[in-house]
């Protein structure tokens, strides 16, 4: 990955992190006020789910920042990268569960159309699919790390022969 691509990714991640902090600090209290007529349990549930979901996105952004730093340094094909990829997988899976929980909270009553609830369930399925995709990419990273290790061993043996 080129230096410019890493810098561009970090700019996007920094903007996303700043925006998410703004949403948590400013927009969530405003949403709390907007949900004044909703039942207290639903109101608290929606706000909690959204704040936790944003927290999952923040965790993913920080891990991607660390992984992009490893890419820039040329150390991404190491066992240290697995920790960040595992956290991304976990945070994405939690995000899928939170999205489905939001659909469950929105389902009762007539305040939200059934189509919207179905759409939110579909989004939860897509987020779960992303978690599975990240897991598959982790398996590819494991293969790359093993091949890199094997290549270093072979190079070491070749150096001894020469």
Structural notes for this entry:
- With 162 residues, the chain is mostly helical.
- It is 87% helix and 0% strand.
- It has helices at 3-34, 40-73, 80-106, 114-161.
- The model has no long low-confidence stretch (mean pLDDT 91).
Secondary structure blueprint with pairings:
Layout: H1 3-34, H2 40-73, H3 80-106, H4 114-161
Biggest beta-sheet profile: none
Shape: elongated
Distance separating the two termini: 33 Å
Mean pLDDT: 91
The fraction of residues in strands falls at under 5%
- Structural class determined from secondary elements: mainly alpha
Proportion of residues in helical segments: over 70%
Count of beta strands:
0
In short:
The protein is mostly helical and 162 residues long. The chain has helices spanning 3-34, 40-73, 80-106, 114-161.
Write out key terms for the chains shown.
4 helices, elongated, 162 residues, 87% helix, mainly alpha
């Amino acid at each position: 990955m080129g230096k410019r691509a890493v810098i561009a990714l970090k700019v996007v991640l920094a903007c996303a992190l700043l925006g998410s902090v703004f949403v948590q600090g400013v927009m969530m209290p405003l949403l709390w006020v907007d949900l004044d007529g909703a039942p207290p349990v639903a109101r608290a549930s929606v706000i909690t789910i959204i704040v936790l979901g944003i927290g999952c996105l923040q965790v993913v952004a920080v891990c991607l920042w660390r992984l992009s730093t490893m890419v820039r340094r040329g150390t991404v094909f190491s066992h240290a990268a697995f920790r960040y990829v595992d956290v991304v997988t976990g945070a994405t899976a939690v995000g899928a569960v939170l999205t489905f929980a939001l659909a469950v909270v929105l389902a009762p009553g007539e305040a939200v159309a059934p189509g919207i609830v179905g759409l939110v369930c579909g989004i939860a399925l897509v987020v779960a699919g992303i978690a599975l995709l990240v897991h598959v990419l982790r398996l590819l990273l494991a293969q790359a790390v093993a091949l890199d290790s094997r290549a270093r061993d072979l190079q070491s043996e070749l150096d001894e022969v020469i």
